[in-house]
């Protein structure tokens, strides 16, 4: 598939993100190009702004999304993020994006983006994707799962903060681009957060929460839980 189509797709995703309600506050200036972190600085909802008189076109440029990510890992997935850390010009603008590469049967495991809705566009391959709703008000109901099989050209939306996943169900590599309604959407990978926190959650807590024997939790906490992004 031609990369030109991919770049157009990214533009569409960012356009959708920009007109959607986002968690990030609206900027009060044309732009606020991020400065590199200083260990003595404290910042909230973004980074310090570069002097507008020193801003150059390169501050708004990121190159390399045409390059496939390395999927030679335990999950078979690579996420190339482009947020305000990689592209300083995104600071305060409320959007970001990512390229996702999936090896055959590669998995982007259940995770959430606490600060952003995600619009995923599949460029190549076939994916099985889905998200789970938050706890329903009615205790007799269960969290609902929404899933779809995607083919090239399909777009699927994952609402902000909800647990979601993608897995390559094809025998060839898959490539997708994601647009986010935040300059810094954040990622919480569920398995990592629950079983590999530092320090670890008391196994008795998890054993009761999952209604399993403590030795099962001990086993899970002893595993290596890779992050996909």
Automatic annotation (TrEMBL):
Per the UniProt record, the source organism is Salvia divinorum
Q: Which GO terms describe its molecular function?
A: manganese ion binding
Q: What is its main location?
A: secreted
Q: What is this protein called?
A: Germin-like protein
- The entry's oxalate-binding residues are 108, 113, 118
Entry's SMART domains? Answer: Cupin_1
Tell whether DNA-binding is among the UniProt keywords. Answer: no
Which cysteines bridge via disulfide bonds?
A: 32-49
Cellular component terms per the entry's GO annotation: apoplast
Q: Which family does it belong to?
A: Belongs to the germin family.
Q: Which PROSITE patterns match?
A: PROKAR_LIPOPROTEIN
Q: Residue span of the signal peptide, if any?
A: 1-22
Q: Where along the chain is Mn(2+) bound?
A: 111, 113, 118, 164
Q: What keywords were assigned to this record?
A: Apoplast, Disulfide bond, Manganese, Metal-binding, Secreted, Signal
Domain Cupin type-1, residue spans: 63-218
Compartments (UniProt record): Secreted, Extracellular space, Apoplast
């Amino acid at each position: 598939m031609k990369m030109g189509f991919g770049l157009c797709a990214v533009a569409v995703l960012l356009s959708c993100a920009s007109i959607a309600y986002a968690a990030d506050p609206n900027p009060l200036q044309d732009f606020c190009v991020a400065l590199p972190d200083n260990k003595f600085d404290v910042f909230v909802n973004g980074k310090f702004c570069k002097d507008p008189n020193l801003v150059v076109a390169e501050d708004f440029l990121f190159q390399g999304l045409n390059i496939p990510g390395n999927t030679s890992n335990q999950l078979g997935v690579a996420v190339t993020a482009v947020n305000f850390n990689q592209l300083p010009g995104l600071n305060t603008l409320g959007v970001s994006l990512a390229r996702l590469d999936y090896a055959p049967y590669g998995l982007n495991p259940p995770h959430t983006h606490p600060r952003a809705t995600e619009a995923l566009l599949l460029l190549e391959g076939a994916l099985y994707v889905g998200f789970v709703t938050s706890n329903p008000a009615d205790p007799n109901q269960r969290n609902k799962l929404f899933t779809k099989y995607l083919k090239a050209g399909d777009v699927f939306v994952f609402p902000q903060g909800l647990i979601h996943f993608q897995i390559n169900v094809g025998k060839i590599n898959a490539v997708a681009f994601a647009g986010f309604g935040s300059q810094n959407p954040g990622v919480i990978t569920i398995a990592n957060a629950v079983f590999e926190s530092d320090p670890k959650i008391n196994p008795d807590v998890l054993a009761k929460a999952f209604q399993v024997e403590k030795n099962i939790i001990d086993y899970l906490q002893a595993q290596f839980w890779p992050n996909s992004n």
